[in-house]
Amino acid sequence: MRYQYITMKRGKSALPCRICSFCLKKALALALLALTLSLTSIMTHAAHSTATAQEVTEQAPQQPLRIVSLAPHLTEWAFSLGLGDNLVGVSDYSDYPEQAKTIQRVADFQGADIARIVALKPDLILAWDGGNKPQDIHKLSSMGLKVFKSKVENIADIASEIKKLGAITNSQKKASTLADNFIQKLTALNHEYAKTTLTPVFYYSWTTPLMTVGPDAWANKLLHVCGAQTLFYDSPVDYPQVALKDVLTRQPQALVAASKSARADLEGFWADHRSFLNAPLIVVNPDITSRFSLRLINELKLLCEGIN
């Protein structure tokens, strides 16, 4: 009986312990399972929220770049790069393409209208280093506005400057295509019309007073591409006023009128002197030859063909 008593005693006292241990383990397992499910739900929700935020960010339309141009050729560059709709202000004489004529004017020969430009809240201002007033460019920059300052000294610079503009307006591919095509055509003209002796040409824009170009003028750089040079290559200034008798004495081999006047009127000026001067008259568009425009290359081709 003692042995049975002990066994029963142990049984009575051991059974509850085993039950409690089992219950505790089961409760702990259930708690862990619940915690795991809860964490999984939270992580899934967080991942979904993050993905949604990224989708919203990627799908949110960017605000269009607001651009102000302070020179006609810069306006043309913007249109060439497909940024015409981004222009909110342009300079006087921004007349190409046709759409440019409808854009608000913010600069003229007297300078930039700073107050009007600021009111337009531009993201980018296109300025001409060498054409716009330095104090205007400095003022706009000092106000925290982003200014693209472009400088063209040689014909090839047109291509390199357009590439720079493309780089800051997310239009690199378009800019590279346009620039490479421009350089390719320019190189072809240089090779075709290269000469040891340059043809003397009288280049002028108007006759009252009669003015021409000197050796460092932009127009003379165009003439060089055509194997020619200004008749007044020895002028100490870029745009000298000359006498008609000096033109006749120097005997140019071609006359180039950068003018929008009727051809008949231009020919009329030389009519009385044709017994002394047989040079052909070539007419070019001054809005193209005097601008750093991509259109220049086609006008330059016509000029070279006329001279040669």
TrEMBL record:
UniProt superkingdom: Bacteria
* Claim: Cell division is one of the keywords in the record: no
What are the alphabetically sorted keywords of the record? Signal
List the Pfam families hit by this protein, alphabetically: Peripla_BP_2
On whether Signal is a keyword of this UniProt record, the answer is yes
**Which GO terms are recorded in the biological process aspect for this UniProt protein?**
cellular response to iron ion
- Where is each Fe/B12 periplasmic-binding domain found? 66-308
For this UniProt entry, which residues form the secretion signal?
1-46
The family database entries (NCBIfam families) matched by this protein are listed as: TroA_like
What protein is this chain from? ABC transporter substrate-binding protein
Give the lineage: Bacteria, Pseudomonadati, Pseudomonadota, Gammaproteobacteria, Alteromonadales
